[in-house]
Amino acid sequence: MTFNTGQSCSISGVLANWKVLLGLLIIIITTSIRSYIRLSHVPGPLFQSISSLGFLKTHLDGSPHSEILKWTQRPLIKVGPNSVITSDVKTVQRISGVKSPYSKGGWYRPFRFIKERDHSFSMVHEPSHTAFRSKIAAGFRGSAEMEQAAFGFLDEGYDFYGFLKWNKEFFSVAATSAVLPTLARAAQLWPFRGALPKATDPAGLGKFIRHSEEVVGARYKEGPDGRRDLVGMFMKMGVTKDGAVNQTVLYLTSNPRAYKILLSELDKAKADGLLSSPVQSSEARQLPYLQAVVREGLRIYPGGTPLAFKEVPIGGDMVAGYRLPAGTQVGMDVWGALRNTQFWGEDADLFRPERWLNLAEARFSSMVECLDLQFGYGRYQCLGRPLVFMKMNKTLPELLSRYEFAIVDPVHPADIKNAGFYLMNGFNVVVTVRA
Ligand code: HEM
Predict the structure, then answer these.
(1) How many angstroms is it from 121 CA to the middle of ligand 1?
(2) Which CATH superfamily is domain 43-433 in?
(3) Which chain regions cross the lipid bilayer (predicted)?
(4) Whose CA is nearest to atom 9 of ligand 1?
(5) Phi first, then psi: what are they for 431, rounded to 5°?
């Protein structure tokens, strides 16, 4: 008797479980169909229409760039049920323009790396962002002191505070979780937020924060002293990434012809007394082949490829010829723009600095505009952009005219992963002092 009752209970239990499972399945199927229908008219792989998992996986592998380049050559592609990316420069300019009704999307959230404290990049509240940006912008304007600040890590010769190591690890995690806004939100909640850097950490950004707080605190105690460095400017008004230089050296060492032309330009400029030591960026800007190398280096491997999703405003919008409903996340497809064969020509995948030389003004401007897509545009444009060019203009001539570089392992020269920025490891070179 007891046995029979037990058996009938377990059968009803099984039935109840089946009902739950069936209910869940119906919810998943209806949500997937609704997700699919929402952006079914936008081109992109079918799986991306119903889930962001495929795109998330490319980020976990550090290879969203190679995946996207397979689908690209289109002005708009779908990368998730509610997300698209565009390589159309004019569209990005319109979306990021000063008067645009678009706003920053959930993608930015995981970049808030200090608990409850936003920095300009992670700040999604538009009026606060505009006010904060205008305060810090002055600190980013070029000056001799800023040129010096850019070389702090090089002067020391090692990664003090373990900041560069932290930087690499953080960007991998942040750029990956940014693909799934729910994941991004969870990262800011207990218990995960405990992992965010704090001033008491022995290394990484935490230690860097402590040092910055000490320096700024001491400077406030001293009172304004008119020093024209970054701290001084931020006090008055309110990091650098090395990938671009490394990748350009990699491409130069693999292209002996371009490497030779650049060296003869640098040697001649030195012999003619046109370059001081260290080289000033104003001097470097007068060397046409060096400028072509800097731009081609940033084109073939952009310094950064943040998707920087913005949200379509109420009422929806026409983007690159497609109607997008309100709330759709529109990101930048920097890879697609910089390797587009229709724009750059059939040799878009080749490192060829000559493509930047002897151009009509209109063509040159549109190439520069396309190259600049990697820095964003308008009210969000990267404040470190001048610093990036300054650094390339100073570092490349210094390194290349003093030393000769040869790749240790030409079969596998380096590990390059993408985490919004390219992270390069194991780029081993034989360095010889030039005669
Ligand atoms: C090649 C290297 C770099 C690339 C490709 C790059 C690209 C970008 C992009 C795409 C954005 C966001 C645009 C948007 O939200 O739509 C951004 C924002 C920003 N970048 Fe960079 N960046 C680079 C290096 C730097 C450096 C070296 C610094 C600092 C010294 C810097 C400081 C900033 C700041 C402060 C913002 C936030 C601007 C704002 O919120 O308005 N960046 N960057």
Answers:
(1) 8
(2) Cytochrome P450 (1.10.630.10)
(3) 20-37
(4) 375
(5) -110, 125
